Structure prediction request, 254 residues.
Amino acid sequence: MSLNLIGNAVKFTEVGGVEVNVRSFPSSDGKNRITIDVNDTGIGIDSEHKEKLFRPFTQADNSMTRKFGGTGLGLALSQRLSHALSGEISISEGKLGKGCTFTLTFIAGCIQDRTKMPDPLHRPIRVKSDCLKDMKILVVDDSPDNQFLVVRLLKKNGALVETAQDGGEGYRMALSGSFDIVLMDIQMPTMDGYQAKHALDMRGYKKPVIALTAHAMMEERFKTEAAGFAGHLTKPLIATELLKTVASFGKTLH
Prediction:
């Protein structure tokens, strides 16, 4: 829930910044009420469109979908999850162009066993370190953070990587470059992953294109398979899955 709110704040804030404040208030039943405020200096929202944001497949207005991408499901699902935890997501009174604050509250139990859990980011990745040696890979993703993490992991394992910021740029680079494989984000503004894949198919492009999607639902996997993607990876990406998937296609190329 909090990741969705923070991700939206970052996506819709082109100038300024995002601030996250977390507070915990103990209650008489031994549990805690957690409050998370996500403040941004982004595009803001007026009172007329506030309630629409929690309806499935809805954004403040259609121009936001065209510019920033997204399905409009994130806030609706997060609100349902917060209700399941006896909480709620609320939006401060804001103005267009002045940013806004999303507040998430929910009830959480107290941890009894304080044994330190291993950091998942530091677990060893049991994949040969040069498993992608000299593979030429194009990463198409409009999120700088996602792009940075994927590129860093691929290069660390021997790949030669180039990037594109949207589907249109990815389409042009794929046709003009000699890439072994393309990693294509699905949700992008201007031209999304499905449109870019279709455009490549129309030009007879034969190299494998792997879909990157934030949707873990099985229907999304069926949809990418039907669209002709050679593989499907769900965000947040698991390092071992990314490397194994890309490496498996490398074996068929060499």
